[in-house]
């Protein structure tokens, strides 16, 4: 039997599949390549990168897994190396479990285990006045939780970090006021049945 190996599923591909099964099927089975980002979309990606770099300042002194210049396997191994050496904060920590690949924006050792933070450049993350976070963000954090738990990490909390639209800058950027941090642990744990 000639069995073709399919590449691991990335977090963004997982979220794409939740929105449109056919799109994911075409991407994975028919190897239809997504169009490269146009200038506008690239600017959004670049802004997201800058926001992520600012969010890292909430947890200074961490180790960065560089995106450029290494394979995902090398990123995973570097993450394992940092964990084994006792690093308490890792930016872009990379894990693969159940053939799903995730890169965690911020992984930080807390008092009760590991906390992880998904950073978004969005200001509008709520779907209603009751401050319920939009499903797409919950699912984003939920798939990371699934992979991290499956990789053997003791996860204490899962957070969404986003830009606080009430922040008014007066002088140097105050990252602790610029960002709002939402604890999604309960929603993410409840969502694990759907992820599995």
Automatic annotation (TrEMBL):
This is DUF83 domain-containing protein.
């Amino acid at each position: 039997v000639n069995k073709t190996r399919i590449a691991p599923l990335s977090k963004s591909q997982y979220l794409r599949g939740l929105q449109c099964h056919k799109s994911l099927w075409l991407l994975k089975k028919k190897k239809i390549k997504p169009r490269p980002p146009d200038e506008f979309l690239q600017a959004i990606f670049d802004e997201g990168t800058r926001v992520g770099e600012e969010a890292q300042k909430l947890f200074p002194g961490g180790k960065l897994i560089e995106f450029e210049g290494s394979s995902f396997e090398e990123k995973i191994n570097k993450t394992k190396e940092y964990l084994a050496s006792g690093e308490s904060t890792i930016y872009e920590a990379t894990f693969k479990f159940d053939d799903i690949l995730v890169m965690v924006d911020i992984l930080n050792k807390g008092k009760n285990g590991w906390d992880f933070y998904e950073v978004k450049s969005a200001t509008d993350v709520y779907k209603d006045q009751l401050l319920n976070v939009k499903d797409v963000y919950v699912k984003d954090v939920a798939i990371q939780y699934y992979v991290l738990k499956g990789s053997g990490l003791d996860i204490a909390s899962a957070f969404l970090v986003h830009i606080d639209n009430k922040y008014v800058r007066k002088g140097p950027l105050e990252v602790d006021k610029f960002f709002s941090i939402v604890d999604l642990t309960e929603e993410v744990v409840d969502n694990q049945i759907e992820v599995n």
